[in-house]
Each structure stands twice: as structure tokens, then as C-alpha cells.
Amino acid sequence: MRKSNIETAGNQPWIIVVFIILSLLIIFPLLYVISVSVSSDADIARYGYKLIPQNFSFQAYDYIFRTPKGLLQSYLITIIVTTAGTTLSLLLTSSIAYVMTRKDYRYSRLTTFFVFFTLLFNAGLVPSYIVATNVLHIQDTLWALILPYGVSAWFTMLMKGFMDGLPFEIIESAKIDGAGEWGIFARIILPLTKPALATIGLFYALAYWNDWWLAMLYIQNENLVPLQYYLQRIMTNIEFLTKNMQAGINVDMSAIPAESSRMAIAILAAGPMMFAFPFFQKYLIKGLTVGSIKG
Amino acid sequence: MRIWTGLRNEGRQFWRSKSLFFLSLPALIIVFVFYYLPMFGIVIAFKDINYAKGIWGSDWVGLDNFKFFFQSQDAMRITRNTLLLNGMFIVIGTFVSVIIGLLMAELGRRWVRIFQTVLFFPYFLSWVVVGFITYILLNPTYGVINKALEWMNLIPVDWYSNPDYWPVILTLTYLWKNVGYTAIIFFTGLIAIDPTYFEAASIDGATRFQQIRKISIPLIAPLITLLVMLNIGRIFYSDFGLFYFIPRDAGMLYSTTDVVDTYVFRALRVTGDIGMASAASLYQAIVGLVLVFSTNLIVRKFNKENALF
Which residues, at least 6 apart from A26, have a Cβ–Cβ distance to it below 8 Å? Predict the structure, then answer.
């Protein structure tokens, strides 16, 4: 289908040029981050940020690797939050979406409306903040970084769209064979929705991995700071880099290569994502196509 | 009596479908706690919150919080910024991504795969990381742009203290991060078009440009409308990270960068003015609701299929 459309089109050189320019606009700023991270601060002070460093210097990386505690700790938090959060979200989302698609379930429409309504009206930041801190008391715990994203109404509707296409007869025949509802869900429905679980799981994982918002609202404890929030704090104040260092080491603040360290931390924090990205792309594009068609 | 039997009947029915109900219960609880429970908290906007007295014990002040909020210059400023900036993002963003999507459909499969990867990439970065990138470009002393200006013998600009440039900077940053993503949505819509339309048109001698104008664009028009309407429905909500990290929360830039979301966040977490924060937050929720309903009404008028509800 796609092929014949393209055969008539051909590859016009000027279109390729346009895309090369667009790609460069995206790649160049990223290259700057890398090259600033391997420049010495003396060079930066003299020449400014350069695309090709005057002299290569791994001072910043050396400095970070000597006291990596803060960075490693926030990596750990982010990994825990992403894996636990994605698993939990997928279980919650798929179970409620499945129940919505069961036409023979008395409250399926009511459940759908219950979730859908949250897309229309949102109480806003202040009441949500007060519920989390004064009713649930989840501030300064890992729960605060996971539970608020537990069920996304948007992804639930997407999942429901996927599940609507499942043949209902399978469920009926399983019932005749004596399977219980939970058994049907776990052993028949979940395996059948694997592609949807992969796509929506990736969206959830991306949301958890890239989150700084919940940490900014609810986390004061130094040991619970996730990666993105750690980065953000280093951006506002380079001194955070030294805050988590082992006691007893005397730090000369002026010796920190501040400018390059900042960018080195950004590379170390965002780097793994860059390598993982091409593998995920296919699934995400699939999900976004379905999402846009279903509305 | 009849209510009683009705209830008993409902109870029996419920018991029959209990396993499905309990299957969805954990999710129902999360949705209730994080979306419905805060709705009761809306009363905060009508109270003078005093932590010693607790939320329910605090004094009612009627509409005082709203009076203060709307009498301050802030309300006008954040409303204007929110609507203008997000409006600009919708118009320019849609236009640019439709064009990129159309051009992408003209590429061969191998090229598509390469450029798709590159264009989609910024979508994966968080706003914090994008903030690092804009900082490299805009840093007043070492920044790439100011060095380039110096090199051209022009006067460098102190970007982080000059609000005039920020609507443009924010729009460009928004485009940089999001255009690839929306362009791919349009692209996937375009490649789903039945190729026989194009074959028939080229047999009739239509040029490629005519085909795009008469076939491609009309066929993805519903998709464009849908995305635009979804965005208009949410125009009063902003992408917090963009407005907070890119201008680095610089006070001198508030006149053109402060939006409802950043204002509410600051009032809640920095200045601690809960009255103002909750008034602004409720104002946002109500305008948001009205906008969602009215855009949906408009969509329904034209095309029932595309309506959200």
C-alpha cells in the first residue's frame, strides 16, 4: 500500500535537502552538549561554548566519577520508579480497560464514564497537592513518585480501543470450560494484548523515566531525588553536585569545572535514553497511530 | 418498600458480577483518590487556609480569594500569556508539522526511516534536558548565539533578562521538541491513504502538487481538525516544563513567560499563598472545562465521528 504511493513520488533531491537541514537543526544542539562536556573550563571562559573543543579535557567526567554517589543514587531511584511504576500502571490500566470492554458487565459503561470524566475536569494542582500531602501523607516516599501516575485516563482509553477488537467468543468458551474471570483475564486476555501492553508500557515508562514534576512537588529527602530532578537542581545550582559527597573530603568549590560538569552530568543522565531510543521507536509510532485514529 | 426491593435487586446483580468489579477495584481506587478526592478540595478556594485550624476548620471567605486574584495584575498577565503562547504553538505547530508530514510522504522508505528517527528524537528528552540545550545557546557570556553575534560585530543580548524575545524563543523550543512527533502522526495518516486515488489522478495527468492539494490534504483534514480541537480544548493548560525550565524561572521574564500553571506552582510552593494559588487553579479548571465542552460541541456539529463524546 505504502510502496505504490512512494513509487509514484520518487525521491526529489530538494526534499532530502530540506530534511537534512531539519536533522542538522536537531543534531547540532545535542552535539554542543557533548563537546562542552569535554572542554576545559579555562577554554570555555576564553572561547565560549564551541562545537569542537579547543583542547579535549575529561576533567568533568573525572570529577563526577570520583564522587558519583549523588548521580548513582538518583539513577537507582529512577530505575526503581520506572520499573515498579510501569508494572503497576500496566496492571491497573489493563484490568480496568478490560472491564470496560465487557459488554455483559453491568457497570462497564459506568466504569468508562468514571475514568473518562477525569479527562474533562481536573480539580487542579492545589487540591491534588493537599490530598497527597495532608490526606495520604505520601510526600517524601517513593509512592509519591509512582501512584499519581498509576492510571492515566488517556492510556486507559487507548487500551480499551485495543481490547475492543478482541473476539468475545473466546471469553464465552473459556467460561463454559469453567474458567473464572480473573483466570480469563490473566491467562487469555493479557497474552492476547501483548502488543498493546508493549506500546502503552513504553509510554508509561517514558513518563516515569522523564518525570521531575512529582519530585519537585513532593520530594525533599536527598536520597529520593530521581534523575531528572537531580539534573534540574544541578542546573540551578552546581553546588548540588558536591552535596551528596562523602563526608570528610574537603572540597574546593573553585576547583570544580562547573560549566563542563553540568553538561557531563546531562550526558550521563540522558545518554542511556539515546541508545535505547531507536529500539522503542517502532512500538511508539504504532501506539500513536492507533491513538490518533481512535481519538 | 419499593426502594428497598430495588436496592436488594441491585445488590444481587452486583454480587453476580463481583469478580469483574473486584478486578477493576484497585484502578478505581487510584482514580478516585487522585482525581475525584481533589474535587472536594475545590472548597479551599473559598477559604482562608490556616494550617493550625486544618482545611475544614479554616474560615470561609467567600469570593475574597478570587477578588484578590482578579484585581491583581497577575490574572490578566497569565491569562494573556497562556492564551497567546499556546495559541501560537497550535497554529504554527500544526502548520509546520503538516508540511513536514506531507514532505515525509514524498520520501522513499529508507530515507523515511532515517529522518523519522532523527525528528522523533527530541520528543524523548525531558524539558530539563532541553533546558540544558537552550542554556548552551542562550548563555549571555559563553552562549553560542551571543558568540555568533560578537563574531558578526553585533551587540550580544542578555537573553535571560529581556522578556521581549521570549515568545519567539519559547515557540522555537516548542517546535524543536514537538514538531517531529506531530509530523509523524500526520505522516502515518498520509500513508494510510488508498494509493489507487493517486494512481487514478496521475493517469488523468495531475501533477504531484495537485495530488497533494486535492487528495492528500482533504483526506487528512479530519485528523488535523481532531488534533487542533484537542489542543484548543486544552489551551488553558500549559506544558509546565517548557515555561519553567527554558526561561529558568527568571523573574525578569515573567511578563512574557508566566502562564497559569507556573503561576499556580509558584504561589503554592514558593510564596506559599494558597488562597491565590487555589483561586487561579480553580479558574483554570473551570475555563478548561468550558473550552473542552465548547470545542467538542463544534466538532460534533461538523462531524459526529470525530467528537470526543
Answer: B118, B119, B121, B122, B176, B180
